[in-house]
Task: inverse folding
């Protein structure tokens, strides 16, 4: 299997029976999962680059995506025409090892991908309000794809259940918002953040949710059954053009 091949290696594809708002791809092992996702993302980028001068890729910093990014960095794409964006960021310097920017750059911007242009959500000397304004200027460009991760608590990007201002962020028409994650244990010590919003997610032509292990799959299935976005913000990824592509393996 190579990244020149647009056909992901999928063991089983099961559409959600009622609404058809997501497709569940079940992969037989981690290697197949990794390369299937990398091939799918590369195909979306290649498709956009054939029609537009630039392509944009929105990326989670979730650890689950690390092997996918390493595989994707080997894709022979015109990376100099690709903009890399973030789903979210802690209010940290982009070179801080705890920042999401640091993780994404370390895992993806290597090999062929070294030439991609990175859009950091934070910048030294820029206020959080200014940072959100810059992010929203970038976010007006539709993304070729958004690679997403999910916590077992149902959080997506920096949209956490029980977060102090979740409803405000859900309601904004902007692509990004400053968030206060007070009330969410999963946010740990980093309560001040910038996050993509449901409106921002809906601008991605393709959305891929990466899940690993029984706990994450069961959490996602519980979220779908509940339909409660306040308790399961991951459901915000269902909105957008075409169904959410959910890739899972043990």
Result:
């Amino acid at each position: 299997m190579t990244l020149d091949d647009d056909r992901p290696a999928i063991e089983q594809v099961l559409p959600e029976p009622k609404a058809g708002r997501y497709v569940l791809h079940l992969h037989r092992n981690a290697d197949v999962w990794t390369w299937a996702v990398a091939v799918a993302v590369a195909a979306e980028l290649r498709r956009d680059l054939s029609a537009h001068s630039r392509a944009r890729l929105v990326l989670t910093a979730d650890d689950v995506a690390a092997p996918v990014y390493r595989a994707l960095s080997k894709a022979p794409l015109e990376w100099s025409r690709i903009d890399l964006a973030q789903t979210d960021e802690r209010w940290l310097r982009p070179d801080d090892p705890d920042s999401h920017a640091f993780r994404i750059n370390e895992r993806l911007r290597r090999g062929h991908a070294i030439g991609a242009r990175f859009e950091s959500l934070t910048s030294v000397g820029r206020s959080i309000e200014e940072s959100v304004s810059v992010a929203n200027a970038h976010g007006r460009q539709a993304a070729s794809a958004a690679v997403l991760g999910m916590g077992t608590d149902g959080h997506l990007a920096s949209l956490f259940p029980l977060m102090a201002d979740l409803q405000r962020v859900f309601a904004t028409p902007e692509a990004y918002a400053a968030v206060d994650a007070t009330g969410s244990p999963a946010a740990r010590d980093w309560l001040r953040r910038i996050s993509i919003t449901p409106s921002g997610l809906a601008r991605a032509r393709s959305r891929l949710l990466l899940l690993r292990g029984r706990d994450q799959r069961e959490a996602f299935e519980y979220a779908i059954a509940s339909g409660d976005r306040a308790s399961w913000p991951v459901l915000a990824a269902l909105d957008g053009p075409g169904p959410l592509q959910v890739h899972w393996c043990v």
Summary: The first strand starts at residue 12 and ends at 15. The chain has seven helices and eleven strands.
